[in-house]
Amino acid sequence: MSHYDKPDNSGKKPVGKKKFFKSPASRTTTSKPGSRPSSSSAPRRGSSQQGGSSSRRVIKKFNPSDFMRKVEEQVAAPMYDSKHQFSDFLIEEQLKKNIKVRGYVTPTPIQDQAIPLILEGKDVVGTANTGTGKTAAFLIPLVNRLLTGKTNRVLVITPTRELAAQIQDELAYFAKHTGFFSVLCIGGLNIRQQMSTLQQDPEFVIGTPGRLKDLEQNGHLRLNRYNSIVLDEVDTMLDMGFINDMKYIINKLPKDRHSVFFSATISKEIKDVIDKFLHNPVSISVKTRQSAENVNQEVITVDPRNKIEVLHDLLIKPDFTRVIIFVRTKRSTDKLAKSLRDRGFKIATIHGNKTQAQRKKALSDFKDGVVKILLATDVVARGIDIDDVSHVINFDLPQTHEDYIHRIGRTGRANKIGQAITFIEKEDDSMRRSGK
Asked: In terms of CATH, what superfamily is 86-285?
């Protein structure tokens, strides 16, 4: 539970040459050996071999050219002329103070357009990428509507635990000294504690579809009491198979409600949900360029027996300052983590078998620079906003092209150029070339 109190008015050599595939649109690229640190604390080579999962599944949806792209020139994003400053919005003074303390002065495009509409109580459909400021775009006006008595309680639904936790952390800034409190309803945390907090009637409930549905079905979450709902990253929820849970939850809400949807894309399935559950929504779109447009994408062909050696050579290069390495399975993630730790690398890991506390600490250590390497399954690929990730490495191939785009979207953010490297094992490459 998070409670936001009211104010107190009383006062090495490379194993071999790395080969990159060449596509017609890109120049031939080879990697050079990284200079080896002389310090005795530098990561050392070990005798263990790490080749990923023992059962390597050939993913026929990909061609090597899918992973090849060079950002030839950094093109500046067009400037947005904001119509407002945060001080202009018709919101309560305490909320304005909280926004100022947060350091916000000029709204981002999504905030500039969405906040006035949500303040008015209009249903809104926002098309926006992750990292555009959309969390504040819905939290600020909804906190104000609570302060002014225009809404009773707010339900926020997200596809992943990490995104839900990020939203609650952001809420802590805006709801300070309001007396409001919130509960985070996600897997990996003690469900009994969540049940207990729900009995205290929190103003904000933030959670993932599965846990929210469980709590409702067990009688601990009375959805008919929540007259404002936010669905964030709706396209990701559909990708992850939450469509039925979403519909179940929405059907339990009051008919007279205030609804806000955010999604990076609007598919036919999402449009069907919008048409059924929203009332005369106002659509706004402030999508930036796809994050993949700002990412140099390269391929390294590797021998499965030497895969860890190739990775080692990359990680000791000085420009690999903050790296996310994606691995296909939880078991492979733990195995790779042990191999890298044996070589002296400081890393954090995150996957579905980790507790929420472990996942939160891993993300915090990575964001704060305690470790510069994060090993993860695709649980981190969607919706997580981490600044200044220099490189994404696909140690194992993703399952779909959409997963690939989500993975590499962790770098090249905020109009910076990112780097994505995909390992393709030789046997997988030869099968692709033969068309099998």
From this structure: P-loop containing nucleotide triphosphate hydrolases (3.40.50.300)
Kind and range of the H or E element at 300?
strand 295-302
Cβ contacts of 430 within 8 Å, gap of 6 or more: none
Instruction: Yes or no: say if 297 and 420 are a contact pair by the CB < 8 Å rule.
Output: yes
- Outline which parts of the chain fall under CATH 3.40.50.300: 13-75+291-434, 86-285
Among the listed residues 350, 417, 339, the one whose alpha carbon sits nearest the alpha carbon of residue 381:
350
Total number of residues shown for the chain: 436
The correct CATH number of 13-75+291-434 out of 3.40.630.30, 3.40.50.300, 3.30.70.660, 3.30.70.420 is: 3.40.50.300
What end-to-end distance do the CA atoms of the chain give, in Å? Answer: 53
Q: Quote the CA–CA distance of 157 and 371 in Å, as a whole number.
A: 30
CA distance 326 to 344: 19
CA-to-CA distance for 18 and 310, rounded, in angstroms?
8
What tens-digit pLDDT sequence spans the chain (436 residues)?
777 776 555 544 333 333 333 333 333 333 433 344 444 445 655 444 443 333 344 444 566 566 676 665 555 556 778 898 999 999 999 999 999 999 999 999 999 999 999 999 999 999 887 777 899 999 999 999 999 999 999 999 999 888 999 999 999 999 999 999 999 999 888 899 999 999 999 999 999 999 999 999 999 999 999 999 999 989 888 888 899 999 999 999 999 999 999 988 888 889 998 998 999 999 998 865 555 678 899 999 999 999 999 999 999 999 999 999 999 999 999 999 999 999 999 999 998 888 888 888 998 899 899 999 999 998 777 667 788 899 999 999 988 877 888 888 888 876 678 899 999 998 655 545 555 4
* CB contact at 8 A, 80 and 285: no
Phi, psi of 142 (to 5 degrees): -75, -35
> In angstroms, how far is CA 377 from the centroid of its own chain?
12
Confidence (pTM) = 0.71
